[in-house]
Amino acid sequence: MIKRWRVLPVAATFLFAPLAYGADRAGQGSLPYQSFETIESCADCHSEIVTQHARSLMAKSFTHEWDEIEYFELALPHALENQKVSGIKAGCNGCHSPLAYLAGDIPPKRPSAGTRANEGVSCDVCHSITGFVGDIPFNFNYVMNPGDVKQGTRPGMDSGHHEIAVNDFLASAEFCGICHNEKDPFGMWVKATHIEWKEGPYGAKGITCQDCHMPRTDGTLSDDGDPVEGVRRHTFHGVHFPEKLTGAVDVLLYPRTETVEVTDKIIVDATVMNAKAGHMIPSGSVEERVVWLHVEATDSDGKTWHIPVDRKGFDGEDWTVADPEAMAYQDIGDIRGLPNFVGLSRDGDVPAGDRIYRMPYLDPEGRMTIAQWNTASFGPDYRLPPLEGIGEVFTWQLPAGVSKGVLRIRASVYMTLVVSSVADYLKLPATEKEHTVMGSTEVTVLVR
Ligand code: HEC
Ligand code: HEC
Ligand code: HEC
Ligand code: HEC
Ligand code: HEC
Question: Which CATH topology does 242-447 take?
Fold first, then answer.
């Protein structure tokens, strides 16, 4: 029922410390900016792919507002003040701005300065990766060989502009894991999307990240190229695209009886299942996403009541039930040197009593944090594993004043990108705290 995070054993490398890597690993300052071609230079011939990529978060991995705020206003000041996390000053950029990291332009200038750090995860970053160092892809342990040769997966292609090396590594999930697994300075797996995938049903069947995030459609690889089958689209749609979230979660409701008296109790079983994602929901930036189940009932007069979830009684369950009184994120005050900072609402605007599917990230003092680099332990892993149902029970005493007739019970699973209290405090764009529906359902019960 409660999934504990099964973590792969890994040699005790101290992450973010460059010396922990082998000599082949592309290190900080090893490749000047001009080693890489710009995205514009690829646009001359690959205009369609360039347009797709430009709309994705890959192109905005350094310039996106929330990324800029978290790096420049929390992570960087923390790295300069606290030796334990000093490695993130460079480390964040190993994935978010590989060009700046490799050029040794650390810390990079703010996006407004318009440097090449802004190119983010660019075409030439991915198409210069030939492999990774070690046994597990994580913490940008890429082997990087920029130059005339572009890595691809399709044999028999020719380009006058560049050489092509056919390298099946790009078709593997491990390729993505280089940046989608992350171990923080405390040795915690604060991102494990690839590990989750590998241990789950999609990994077992070999359905890759590319299959879901780079869907194939017929077309051409370059503007003047011959038509080919199944071109990999570079859409990389994830949580920032509501269409990717819609239907990602299946919600089913089963009232135990179909008819009740006005003075009765109603018991409704709910099953929530991750039906569409190849890894946990949420995955990746688990510390900041909020995914929750909200159930309410509307009587025949249109009066609506909220129904809180029944407790199961497992260790750490309090973290999974929304509580407007609960405070967290006190480490923001430590990082910013605010001695009287009491923290922020742990669950933001999630209604009291709703079930939250999360794995709490805990700072060295055991308080929930959105700073993944400051995570020293985890609370219980109560997320949605791929293709596994989680059961919930809702026991509800019908309130005085409920009308006879048809009672509609509705369940919805929502996601916000960032917990609303943090989004408000850091003045993030309103889109970061929008409620997006991932799945919903409705059943009826007759009240006599
Ligand atoms: C002058 C035109 C031109 C430019 C500029 C160009 N390419 Fe290409 N590229 C091609 C052609 C032609 C092909 C072969 C496919 C085809 O015929 O449609 C190709 C194929 C590829 C492939 C597929 C390899 C395979 O077989 O799987 C990759 C990857 C690629 N290019 C990456 C890039 C990147 C990255 C850039 C920018 C740094 C770039 N290209 C710039 C013309 C170009
Ligand atoms: C079976 C299809 C499928 C596969 C396989 C898959 N994903 Fe996803 N992925 C999704 C869907 C659907 C979502 C949106 C729902 C969600 O947030 O999980 C998503 C979301 C994401 C997110 C955003 C997660 C968050 O909560 O912020 C990332 C990052 C991601 N995928 C990367 C990957 C990587 C890397 C792999 C391979 C290791 C992969 N995905 C494999 C379907 C898939
Ligand atoms: C996050 C990494 C990543 C980025 C960024 C990226 N690509 Fe790719 N690209 C891939 C992968 C992975 C494949 C091969 C997937 C497969 O075959 O399963 C690929 C395939 C291609 C192909 C061949 C498609 C096919 O169906 O054979 C071309 C052409 C290409 N990329 C060009 C580009 C250009 C141009 C850009 C920049 C606008 C770019 N890529 C950005 C990862 C990336
Ligand atoms: C060089 C590092 C790197 C590699 C390699 C990489 N990614 Fe990412 N990816 C990132 C970063 C950084 C972000 C976060 C962008 C942001 O929001 O700042 C990201 C975000 C994403 C998202 C979330 C987008 C959203 O809308 O929320 C998806 C999906 C994704 N990557 C899929 C993939 C897949 C599939 C592959 C392999 C084909 C891959 N990535 C390879 C660095 C990488
Ligand atoms: C190992 C690669 C890696 C490292 C190192 C890394 N990130 Fe990320 N980061 C990612 C990926 C991949 C995502 C997208 C995950 C997702 O969407 O769930 C991401 C997402 C984010 C997001 C959320 C973006 C959004 O749009 O919601 C922020 C903010 C962020 N990272 C900041 C940082 C900071 C600050 C650091 C350094 C302390 C850092 N990252 C270190 C790979 C990395």
Answer: Immunoglobulin-like (2.60.40)
